[in-house]
Amino acid sequence: MSDLQAYVVGLADAARKASLGLRTLSADAKNRALAAIADRIRERSPAILAANARDLERGRAAGLSAAMLDRLGLDDRRIAGILASLAEIAAFEDPVGETSGVRRPAGFTLQKVRTPIGVVLFIYESRPNVTADAAALCLKSGNAVILRGGSEALTSNREIAGAIREGLAAAGIPADAVQFVDRPEHEAIDLLVGQEGRIDLVIPRGGEALIRRVTERARVPVIKHYKGVCHLYVDASADLAMAVKVVVNSKVQRPGVCNALEKLLVHAGVAAAFLPALAAAMPQVELRGCPRTLAILPGTRAAVEDDWYAEYLDLILAVRVVDGCDEACAHIERYGSRHTDGILASDTAAIERFVAAVDSAAVTVNASTRLNDGGIFGLGAEIGISTDKLHARGPMGLRELTTYKWVVRGSGNLRA
Amino acid sequence: MSDLQAYVVGLADAARKASLGLRTLSADAKNRALAAIADRIRERSPAILAANARDLERGRAAGLSAAMLDRLGLDDRRIAGILASLAEIAAFEDPVGETSGVRRPAGFTLQKVRTPIGVVLFIYESRPNVTADAAALCLKSGNAVILRGGSEALTSNREIAGAIREGLAAAGIPADAVQFVDRPEHEAIDLLVGQEGRIDLVIPRGGEALIRRVTERARVPVIKHYKGVCHLYVDASADLAMAVKVVVNSKVQRPGVCNALEKLLVHAGVAAAFLPALAAAMPQVELRGCPRTLAILPGTRAAVEDDWYAEYLDLILAVRVVDGCDEACAHIERYGSRHTDGILASDTAAIERFVAAVDSAAVTVNASTRLNDGGIFGLGAEIGISTDKLHARGPMGLRELTTYKWVVRGSGNLRA
Question: Class of the B230-376 domain?
Answer without folding.
Answer: alpha beta
